[in-house]
Amino acid sequence: MGLNAPVELLARPAHELARMIAAGEVSAVSVAEACLARIAEVDPQVLAFLSVDGERALRQAAAVDAKRAAGESLGPLAGVPLAMKDIFTYQGLPTTCGSRILQGWYPPYDATVTKRVLAADIVVIGKTNMDEFAMGSSTESSGYQTTRNPWDLDRIPGGSGGGSAAALAAYEAPLALGTDTGGSIRQPASVTGTVGIKPTYGGTSRYGVVAMASSLDVPGPCARNVLDAALLHEVIGGWDPMDSTSINQPVPPVVAAAKSGDVSGMRLGVVKELGGEGCQPGVIQRYREALGALESAGAELVEVSCPHFKYALGAYYLIMPSEVSSNLARFDAVRYGLRVGDDGSRSMEEVTSLTREQGFGQEVKRRIIIGTYALSSGYYDAYYGSAQKVRTLIKGDFDAAFGQVDALVSPTSPTTAWKIGERVDDPLAMYQADLCTIPSNLAGNCAGSFPVGLSPDDSMPVGLQVMAPVLCDDRLYRVGAALERVSGGAR
């Protein structure tokens, strides 16, 4: 994957590309063509994309060039190509969620996030691979292909949004979109050396996002630098009357925070329960170096205890499968998607059973079974009900911590990217990858992952996680921008 002319262009920050397009230094069409050329060159090895929409992307880019030629003002990301996780509906392209049960389904409407991206004149280049229905930490549970980490093609790119993170790291797109249910934006960002943000729950619309776990799913921006993520966050964020969980409040001043990067006087809580046992030595080394850099930049570090965080993994793997069991009941071979065995000789129940057997992968079936059991009569209070009580305790830990500090910090992932196939037969080891990210999903507050260099163990990227209170998303960007300035991110 040697650098060539398209990569020299695509390696520029998205905001710089937009500036060049607006100034007429480069055309939006040429940037889109560079993306398409790069995808054609490297995606047969990386396998980040499930579908590429070249013809329409070039039309969108040409429309941006026409606006500039006509003297119309362009937005801060106009003309910049974007890779979209295949969980957002987008008319004209299949939305599969990485599952065979939705193979060939073309949605009749656009997600709110999709509409906002298009209204900002961002060019949608294609849909990216993901763990099936966003269930996984490695993109190995996709029903179509296993995406590779561009830093080492024998390693995973994280999950569930590994396709979007890999597309960024391989310079196939300057911007990407993901969703985060238990770490599906942040963990891939960590292991690919990119930036990934989980906004406050309700801060970005879920309308048109195929539901996995409705009380946990959050769409968010993915980028290679902090300012690009903030600009995309501003585009997709804000109230949406089509989403009953949407918060009717302005988007926090994320762009100004990303441009500032001033952490002087900020109190950052170092979470005692995260970043210790079970973490790879190289991850801990880079994490501690990043903490030292933040302290040198003027932040005050305070150790904070969140005692119930150790129960987050168990609570999450009861709540999330329960919601999965409910949400995925709609894939019944009747309304849309795959239908197997409908030859006139079988009952509808048999057709539904055959369809779900062939359409869903192993990990999806595992979670449906766990969730159905947790919700069943006689077990609901013992499992699902207890998990919700733990969720309340975790939220209380955050509230207490944010009474002392402005934001919390931890490693994003306990390890760097592991080898493909290494954990596929060990679900518990796979779930451990989200140990640090899950608490913020359970509580609903915002969190982000920022690159802090390469682990000395294996020369693979390491990410630092920042967690901030509800609707204080700008604090993530202040800390991330400071880190970017002092550490230079992953190189």
List keywords for this structure.
17 helices; alpha/beta; 11 strands; 11-stranded mixed beta sheet; Amidase signature (AS) enzymes; 40% helix; 491 residues
Question: What's a concise summary of this model?
Answer:
This protein is of the alpha/beta class and 491 residues long.
Helices and strands in order, then pairings?
Elements: H1 5-10, H2 14-22, H3 28-46, E1 49-52, H4 54-69, E2 81-85, H5 112-119, E3 123-128, H6 162-169, E4 175-180, H7 186-192, E5 195-198, E6 218-223, H8 226-236, H9 254-260, E7 267-271, H10 281-296, E8 300-304, H11 312-327, H12 348-359, H13 362-374, H14 381-402, E9 407-411, H15 427-431, H16 438-443, E10 446-454, E11 461-468, H17 473-487
Parallel strand pairs: 2-3, 2-4, 7-8, 7-9
Antiparallel strand pairs: 1-3, 4-6, 5-6, 5-10, 9-11, 10-11
Helix pairs in contact: 3-4, 8-9, 9-17, 11-13, 11-14
Structural description of this entry:
The chain is α/β, with parallel strands linked by helices and 491 residues long. The protein has 17 helices and eleven strands. An eleven-stranded mixed beta sheet has the order 1-3-2-4-6-5-10-11-9-7-8, sandwiched between helices. α3 runs antiparallel to α4.
